[in-house]
Amino acid sequence: MTETPRLRGMANVSYWAADWQAAKGWYTELIGFAPYFLRDGYAEWRLGDHQDELGLIDSRYRPPGTASGPGGVVLYWHVDDVHGMFARLLALGATAHEPPQDRGHGFVTATVVDPFGNLLGVMYNPHHVEILAAKEAAVVPQG
To answer: Is 61 helix (H, G, I), strand (E, B) or coil?
Structure first.
């Protein structure tokens, strides 16, 4: 008997940029450190509580038929302060797409378009906080 294939979590999100060098600089400034992996036309950072991977790909490698510009899918990065991060993203040159919105039950979201045409979402997600707290509690020695 084989197990039914299932999604297990985000492994990598990739953004495209026609001006890859400028985008690499912009994301390095936003993230706060240089990518851990570099090759011509590709940079990758590991960041956040789960060391999620953000890839930045030169648009010359975009597969034919791949849409450019803001699309219909938004990956939301968890942040502790949506309003503060939204303001920081705008200060770095992003354009407001959807200002911070209270979605109820503690969820707050916002989206911007980065200077390279990609949708970038930020979210305060109480479930993310709960999961992280549970994992941290599980590794704390009981004494």
So the answer is: helix
